[in-house]
Amino acid sequence: MIEVKDLTKNYGDRLAVDNISFCVKRGEILGFLGQNGAGKSTTMKILTCFMPATSGTASVAGFDVFENPYEVKKRIGYLPENPPIYLELLVSEYLDFVANLRKIPSSNKKKKINAVIERCQLGDVRNRLIGNLSKGYRQRVGLAQALIHDPEVLILDEPTVGLDPKQVSEARGLIKSLRSERTVIYSTHILSEVAATCDRIIVIDRGKIVAQEAINSLGAAGATTKTELIVQRSAESVAQSLRSLQGVKSVHYQANGKERIVVETEPREEIMAEIAKVVVNNNAGLIQMSPVQLALEDYYLNLISGKRGVSI
Ligand SMILES: Nc1ncnc2c1ncn2[C@@H]1O[C@H](COP(=O)(O)OP(=O)(O)OP(=O)(O)O)[C@@H](O)[C@H]1O
Ligand SMILES: [Mg+2]
Fold first, then answer.
1. Is the CB of residue 302 below 6 angstroms from any atom belonging to ligand 1?
2. Domains, the chain, ranges and CATH?
3. Which of 5, 62, 148, 176 has the highest CB neighbour count under 10 A?
4. What are 157-183's pLDDT values in tens digits?
5. CA gyration radius for the chain?
6. Separation of CA 16 and ligand 1 centre (Å)
7. Rounded to the nearest 5°, which phi and psi values hold at 108?
8. Is 66 helix (H, G, I), strand (E, B) or coil?
9. Is the CB of 14 inside a 6 Å radius of any atom of ligand 1?
10. CB of 39 closer than 6 A to ligand 1?
11. What is the dihedral of CA 115, 83, 269, 278, to 10 degrees?
């Protein structure tokens, strides 16, 4: 669906993207992982025809981004890093404006707008000014404008940045609901984020691809997710039960006064449900369960220290 070959972008003498090649299959969710300045947004801008590459080729659904930008843009929904959202418009007015830009026939427009409002849970704010919305709601408006024309491909540049944990989880749910229906590229700094949402990741560092992994091989790659639990009582017995769960790599607990447990697991989402079940079965009184996000840097260090011989 997306093919990138030997793509390079220089901004003057700054090399932002350095000869990268990758493919994304139809229906796949690809996580684009990299630190600040790695070249994620630059690659996405080239794929969405916002900017030409210095050399190399890229195509979407068989159309070259340089030769057929119109055909490419028709098929893509793009959530940029800083969405150009009009603060002085109501949510519904803005979506109407985007629908017109996307040349959605007027007979179909209302239906399409209502559908994205529902999908992005914007019903409560449809008649509010975008300028008065919270960051999370603005991000949802950004997602809605990317989805309005039912694109085959979605390019989402840090869709969860600045969202609170509940909104992050809702945004992930929304993106996952697109699986198999659309092809998605999704950039982030956070490994646990891609582990929870994507089928495959590409790690990009200083413009180069340093690793490509299927998500289900991440556990083997040494990537883990840490979860912190605060309980009312019985931290010790909860910790003991957790140790026997499949996929749990380590458990640390603190039982003196503050009953706190930190459990390190493979990055599989089902494990979260299993952990919660253990707490309930121990009647421990769950107060809090939250992910301790593993910094990308830790993952890099694992990769780069050559633990698995990933070629860099
Ligand atoms: N318009 C520009 N002019 C000059 N240099 C730029 C421009 N845009 C980006 N760069 C540089 O290109 C490199 C890659 O930037 P890019 O925005 O693609 O990174 P990123 O991976 O999206 O980072 P972040 O996580 O901070 O969003 C950086 O060194 C950046 O300073
Ligand atoms: Mg960026």
1. no
2. 2-217 (3.40.50.300), 225-293 (3.30.70.920)
3. 148
4. 998 887 777 878 888 888 888 877 899
5. 21
6. 6
7. -105, -10
8. coil
9. yes
10. yes
11. -90
